[in-house]
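From the shared-data thread, chain only:
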Amino acid sequence: MLLISSAAATDVGKVREKNEDNFYLCGKMRDGNESEPTLLRDDTRRDAYLYAVCDGMGGELCGELASEIAVTALDGFKDDFDERAEEYFEYANELVCREIRRQGGRMGTTFAGLWIKDEKARAYNAGDSRIYLLRGGHLMQLSEDHTQAQLMYKQGLISKEEVKTHPFRNRLTQHIGIFPQELELVPHAVVNIPLQAGDRFLLCSDGLTDMLTEEEIRSLMSEGDTPTAIAGSLLRSALENGGRDNVTVIAVSVDKASSEDEELFSFLKDFSDWS
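Structure, as tokens:
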């Protein structure tokens, strides 16, 4: 039996006035306080786990509203996201587009989500918020960066190194808040990832990945012994390196249950079935 634990951390950073990021931690979201960093943990045993990081764009209240809409909409899908992911993206996209029509101007949000059930994981993303898996000391990016620079790299127009500094590295090709008549929203998905004891997942906005190298991220994830420690150290390091953008991270740990945990869980399940 595997135990899932997690923690989320977010901060406005050292430059921005508003935090346009938001997160979804199995039903918990950012409280809206801009002046103080937020750190939440979740160790509750569940049948399924749903996590997401959303990085809003559109400036001040617009970006903040778009990311809030996206994470709030997840509540209606938290029990069966794996079966209704396509429906969620259509629904959230329509909600944001409806707000665009109401307010005028443009807004949108990235999405990086992780679904865990029956000791398997699924990763979904639209935009440049990332999802990583640390396994056996190796850091793997599960998400795909939906940027114009990344697209140019895939087309062979620029090198992988040039992507990091290209003027179009932050110009998104996919995000929630796309009008269907302009472009089709096609999230990236990696499904049926078998979990292993010791796995560590990370969901993050580009406020983290623009401030830390992947080697720095790997090292901090390897050193942390709990999701709270990992999330806290990643957030602090991004701020120490400049904190030029809002920073949001969710750390998820997969650990082998002790015999005592297994006995307790079996008892609680039997009691629930009996009730």
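Residues 81-103 form the longest helix (23 residues).
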